[in-house]
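Long-time lurker, first post. I've been practising inverse folding by hand and with some scripts of my own, and I keep getting stuck on stretches where the structure tokens seem ambiguous. Below is the full token string for one chain I'm working on. Before anyone asks, I'm not after the true native sequence, just a reasonable design that respects the backbone. If someone could post their per-position residues I'd love to compare against what I wrote down in my notebook.
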């Protein structure tokens, strides 16, 4: 499966952005999907994920209540509200086949910059 992320940009503190990740090659129906981010000088961290069924979601503590992950069989979105400068990072979407235990497919990343 190939993943293409988009939607990043430069915004101000308190603004919103919606990231999208479109899958090609096959559907992502049977994949756990997630968004991770990597800020300069920091390790990549998982921001949010959603199970293949859509029933289970995970959010990094620092984004709970501000970010919402959603999906269908072809697309994964991340709605980001009330953005903060510490949200500045390159955001990556990723797919994990059920049973694999780790993300095996990654998009190319989209840069989000939040100015104060």
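-- Answer (accepted) --
I ran through it position by position. Result:
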């Amino acid at each position: 499966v190939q993943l293409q992320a988009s939607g990043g940009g430069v915004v101000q503190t308190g603004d919103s952005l919606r990231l999208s990740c479109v899958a090609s090659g096959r559907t992502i129906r049977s994949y756990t999907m997630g968004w991770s981010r990597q800020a300069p000088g920091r390790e990549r961290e998982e921001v949010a994920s959603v199970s293949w069924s859509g029933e289970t979601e995970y959010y990094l503590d620092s984004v709970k209540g501000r970010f919402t992950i959603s999906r269908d069989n072809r697309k994964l979105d991340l709605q980001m509200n009330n953005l903060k400068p510490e949200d500045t990072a390159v955001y990556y979407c990723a797919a994990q086949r059920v049973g694999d235990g780790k993300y095996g497919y990654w998009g190319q990343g989209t840069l989000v910059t939040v100015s104060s």
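A couple of notes from the structure itself: The two ends are 37 Å apart (CA to CA). The CA atoms of residues 64 and 92 lie 18 Å apart. Happy to go over any region you disagree with.
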